Amino acid sequence: MGRTQSLGRDFGWLWAAYAASAVGTWLALDAFPLIAILVLHSSPAQVSLLSAAGLAVGALIALPLGPWVEFRRKQPVMIAMDLLRLAALLSLPAAYLLGGLTFTQLVVVSVVVAAANIVFTAASGACLKALVRKEDLLKANGRFESTMWTATVIGPPLGGALIGVFGPLTTVVVDAVSYLLSALGVRAIGGHEPRPAPRNDKGFTAGEMLDGWRFILRHPQLRPLFLNTSLVNGLIMATAPLLAVLLLGEEGFAPWQYGLAFGVPCLGGLLGSRIARPLVSRFGQHRVLIVSGALRACWLLGLPFVGPGIPGLLLVVLVELGLITCMGVFNPVYATYRLERTTSDRVARVLSAWSITSSATIALLTLLWGLLASLVGSRTAIAVAGVLILCTPLLLPRREHAAPADRPAEQVRQLT
């Protein structure tokens, strides 16, 4: 099988599994808040709590699971997390049909899904590094990124149509089925993962649970990248609900205009992910990482200036298109950069620590910016985030260092 055409059968199944779950996730975008509002008639405070609790508590639960994943075979862990998400999500329509769906159950399911997402991400990153050669990692991550943005373009409109016809629980069922398809895809990956070396002790110490953060913070390139991505993602996500209030409330955008304003720019993410590899080939990985990372921080400040009508809509589309295109370039390059600089016997712990920190940061900043917006207004709160995010390029790794090769012993341990 030609190297330029394919990354191999095993990667193909991993990619198919990712595609299935990505489509399901974006089809079910905002399903939980919609269920809380339309089915359970929850208050705005409860809806905010639902979003923050899922991320924060899910991250807390996932904390001890990073080292646990490291010493387990990765494919069974991924399958288990898919089946856990399948069962958790299906419990919602089942409870609804039985007349017993509650807000508490919705929060619990959101927590379980958030924790399972973190564990699956850690295991799949380790699995990817074992399946794909180092020189093909950027190609593989670019395909994941393209798939994600394609799902982003088609998922929310289709999900909105399904919700309009069948109700918000419909997309939850579709999302649940997508995890079943993902589990089948992972199961189809060939090869046999050797069992990990047995551990002498039982359980994991606090030091082992923190080992992912210790590795990141001691690494001269990963440390600034870790801080940069956590803050950028947190600030962008913290402004998302405020932007919805600004556009749908203060500026009077119709729901279809709101969907259009964020659906069309996702094509930029698809474009960015397709050109990332050629850009790296021409300009080098470090330069593309720095430039795209800096450019993605320049767009948020344009959103506070949005006004009503077609000019306002065009401004949002332009800003989001620029932001998402830069993210489409940056994300696969940064994911590859991170994997190349993480030793194979630490991948699951590092990715778990990274995801936990990202989820916790988004939850915290969302709560803080909600409070700030209640004091100064949504527009001003978004402007504050836009100013702060301009400082984040200072945290990108400034010096270019080649990724160290893993020692053979570490490579063997990674396959466990």
TrEMBL record:
Keywords: Cell membrane, Membrane, Transmembrane, Transmembrane helix. It holds the Pfam family MFS_1. It is found in: Cell membrane. Gene3D superfamilies: MFS general substrate transporter like domains. InterPro entries: MFS (IPR011701), MFS_trans_sf (IPR036259). CDD domains: MFS_MefA_like. The keyword Transmembrane helix applies. It is a multi-pass membrane protein. Its main location: membrane. The chain crosses the membrane at residues 12-39, 45-65, 77-97, 103-128, 225-249, 255-276, 288-307, 313-335, 347-372, 378-396. The keyword Repeat does not apply. This is MFS family permease. It comes from Kutzneria viridogrisea. The lineage of its organism: Bacteria, Bacillati, Actinomycetota, Actinomycetes, Pseudonocardiales.
